[in-house]
Every structure is written in structure tokens, then in C-alpha cells.
Specification:
With 91 residues, the protein is α+β, with helices and mostly antiparallel strands. It contains two helices and four strands. The longest helix is centred in the C-terminal third of the chain and has 10 residues. It binds adenosine-5'-triphosphate and magnesium ion.
Length: 91
């Protein structure tokens, strides 16, 4: 359902997400934990097509993050409830 390979996000010289490999099955409840600054929010922003990825791949179902034709379809599939909405603005 969610598959990433070497998913990476850089903000200038800072690598916020470094070659993430993630596989989450359909129907699976997945806890995505890590220390402050680990890159969790940045990962979710990429997976929701709110910000671009720097490199690597990410698929939600059969749709490809970064493919402009798939972006609307991914956004329609995803529900996002956030603690702080300002973290989830796009770029
Ligand atoms: N828009 C941005 N511009 C520059 N650096 C950023 C930006 N967004 C996040 N970062 C940096 O990227 C790294 C990862 O941040 P991120 O917010 O994804 O971590 P997080 O795991 O969600 O942290 P927290 O547990 O505090 O919410 C941090 O070093 C952060 O300062
Ligand atoms: Mg966060």
C-alpha cells in the first residue's frame, strides 16, 4: 500500500529524510516513531504530495508520489489529522 525506496528530502545542506525504505501493507496499522527532528513530518508531507521529494521513490497503492498525474488521486485517498496544521503546508 505504501512503499518507499531511498526516499530522501534535503532542505539546502540539511538532509531531513535520508534514504527511507518503508513498506506498509493494506490494512496495517503502522506507528511511525522517532526523536524530534528525525524527519517524520517531512516524510508525511512528501507522502501526501504537499512537498516535493529530493530523490528516491514513493508509491501509495498504484500511484507514484512526484507524478503530477497521480498527485490528485493520492490526495483524494489520504486522510490527515494533524496536531499542528502549519507543519503540513505545502511548498
Ligand atoms: N521547511 C523546512 N526547511 C528547513 N528545514 C526543515 C524544514 N522542515 C523540517 N526541517 C528540518 O528537517 C529535519 C526533520 O524535521 P521534521 O519536522 O520532519 O522532524 P520530525 O520527526 O517531524 O520532528 P518532531 O518530532 O519534532 O515533530 C529537522 O532538522 C528540521 O529542522
Ligand atoms: Mg513532526
Amino acid at each position: 500500500m505504501i512503499d518507499t525506496a531511498n526516499l530522501t528530502k534535503k532542505f539546502g545542506d540539511l538532509t531531513a529524510v535520508d534514504s527511507l525504505m518503508l513498506h506498509v501493507n493494506d490494512g496495517e496499522v503502522f506507528g511511525f516513531l522517532g526523536p524530534n527532528g528525525a524527519g517524520k513530518t517531512t516524510t508525511i508531507r512528501m507522502l501526501c504530495c504537499l512537498i516535493s521529494k529530493t530523490s528516491g521513490t514513493a508509491k501509495i497503492g498504484n500511484y507514484e508520489v512526484g507524478n503530477s498525474a497521480d498527485q490528485q488521486k493520492i490526495r483524494r485517498m489520504v486522510g490527515l489529522l494533524t496536531e499542528n496544521s502549519s507543519n503540513f503546508e505545502g511548498d
